[in-house]
Each structure stands twice: as structure tokens, then as C-alpha cells.
Write a structure and sequence with these properties.
heterodimer, A: about 120 residues, mainly beta, B: about 110 residues, 5-stranded antiparallel beta sheet, 11 strands
């Protein structure tokens, strides 16, 4: 089955520094990848959608200069949280799909990254 | 804008009981509907994927139905076990992305 690997699983960084999170599709080519943020005891909030080789499409209210998304290949997307602050502390999860509509496999999710900014 | 609602928000049952989790959505023009399980602090595990042309999907003790015209899906879990304790999320695929419900947190008591 489709597998998505997300690293790191946990990261602690100092306020003002940048953090990069990787999302890889291991056994399929992902034309579309998604980045979500999840607050405690809440559901997933879509941050942005990225298609390989294109600029990411950000949801309303998400700062594209703060959350940089790169989808340079069909198997790798990265999310960089720039100049991180304590309010950026959260659980970030990526998702990947072969086609934009989910296709026969649906959407596969990574294991998430717990970011803590101190 | 697609709105997805899951009822109930939380559910506690004794081991062995059947679970019924409900999901409703406002826009029936969907590609598919997917049920996920999330354990605390973990990512999402896909349970069942139902395409818009399908009425139901089954996997082991899990069965999910889809009634697109009424905007509803139900996830049934037979003979619940303590290991089924988790949050179950319903997600609707449309407009080239997934819209999530808030989830149902299930506790199965031994």
C-alpha cells in the first residue's frame, strides 16, 4: 500500500530560528501533497496544497512567507517554518496522493511532526 | 464551502458492543469519502475509502456506507475491542482536497 514518511517526528527549536519538515512518498509518485496543522483536541486544518513543480496554494489566513512549501519532485515536499515563534508550536501533518482527486488509493498521511518553539 | 459534521463527538462503550459513527456533509458533489483513525499524538491511518459511485466498503470488522444524495456516511465497527479506542475522522474529497469533520473520540472499556 501507499506509504508516506514524515521527518522529523519531533523537533524543538529556539524562537527566531527556522525548521524544515520533510514529507516523502515512498512507493508512489505524489502529484499532489498537502500540509495540515492540528491544534490539541481539534481536527486538521489545511494549510496549503502543493503540486509538483508548481507554487503551493495556501489557504486563507496562512502566511506563505512564514510557511514555505517546496514540492521539487514527485516524491518529496518540504515545509519550512521560518522565524518560528512559540505560537507556531503545533502538530504538522502531511498527506500525499497520486492524483488531485484522490484516485483509487485516496489520501495517505504521514505520521506527523510535533514542533515545539521555546 | 463543504461542511463536515461528525456525531457524536465522543462515545464510550463496553467491549464487545458494536459502534456506529455518523458523518454528514453539505455538498454532495464529492469525489470520495475516507474514514481515518488517529491515535493520540500520531498521524492518520486510512480505514476505508469509498468512491462517489460506491454505496459501501468493508474491511474486516469495519463497514462504511455512503449515501451521497443525503450527504451521509456511517462507519460501523463490529464487536468493539479496547484497541479500537481512538479518534475517528471522516473526510470528504472534493475541490481537489479533503474536508475533515471534527472527529468522534471512541473509548472501549475492557
Amino acid at each position: 500500500g501507499a506509504v508516506v514518511s514524515q521527518h522529523p517526528s519531533r523537533v524543538i527549536c529556539k524562537s527566531g530560528t527556522s525548521v524544515k519538515i520533510e514529507c516523502r512518498s515512498l512507493d508512489f509518485q505524489a502529484t499532489t501533497m498537502f500540509w495540515y496543522r492540528q491544534f490539541p483536541k481539534q481536527s486538521l486544518m489545511l494549510m496549503a496544497t502543493s503540486n509538483e513543480g508548481s507554487k503551493a496554494t495556501y489557504e486563507q489566513g496562512v502566511e506563505k512567507d512564514k510557511f514555505l512549501i517546496n514540492h521539487a519532485s514527485l516524491t518529496l515536499s518540504t515545509l519550512t517554518v521560518t522565524s518560528a515563534h512559540p505560537e507556531d508550536s503545533s502538530f504538522y501533518i502531511c498527506s500525499a496522493t497520486r492524483t488531485g482527486t484522490g484516485g483509487s488509493d485516496g489520501y495517505t498521511f504521514g505520521s506527523g511532526t510535533r514542533l515545539t518553539v521555546v | 464551502k463543504q461542511e463536515v459534521t461528525q456525531i457524536p463527538a465522543a462515545l464510550s462503550v463496553p467491549e464487545g458492543e458494536n459502534l456506529v459513527l455518523n458523518c454528514s456533509f453539505t455538498d454532495s458533489a464529492i469525489y470520495n469519502l475516507q474514514w481515518f483513525r488517529q491515535d493520540p499524538g500520531k498521524g492518520l491511518t486510512s480505514l476505508l475509502l469509498i468512491q462517489s459511485s460506491q454505496r459501501e466498503q468493508t474491511s474486516g470488522r469495519l463497514n462504511a456506507s455512503l449515501d451521497k444524495s443525503s450527504g451521509r456516511s456511517t462507519l460501523y465497527i463490529a464487536a468493539s475491542q479496547p484497541g479500537d479506542s481512538a479518534t475517528y475522522l471522516c473526510a470528504v474529497g472534493d475541490d481537489y482536497k479533503l474536508s475533515f469533520g471534527a472527529g468522534t473520540t471512541v473509548t472501549v472499556r475492557a
